Amino acid sequence: MTYGEIKNLLMMMDNPADRLEMVMDIGAQSSKVPDGAICTEILGCSSFVQICRQDNNFFVNADSALVRGVAAIIVSMVDGKTAQEIREMDIAGEFSSLGLNLGTGRLNGVDSMIRFLKNL
Fold it and tell me: What is the full DSSP assignment across 18-57?
């Protein structure tokens, strides 16, 4: 699923609980990490999460359904882009525009994921 498709789905929902349920569904539907992908554990997240990369394609592993969904949304923004293109993006602003109701701990994890991607 592309980031544009994900954003459209989330914007159609008014109920915050429904939106978080959709985030978990997005995580459940995200692509499996292929063999040979390089994975990095993201420190600063309240749950275990890895962002994995194979060429310019990104994948996620996480031990929480919600975190997997959040990470899947973030990597969908950068999938197929070069490191330079990612550095030029406003990932935090775009993620914030989704209006997801996440707690402070989860938002710290979002910041850690974005920081990792910006430093590729």
Answer: HHHHHHHHHHHHSPPPPTT-EEEE-TT-SS-EEEEEETTE
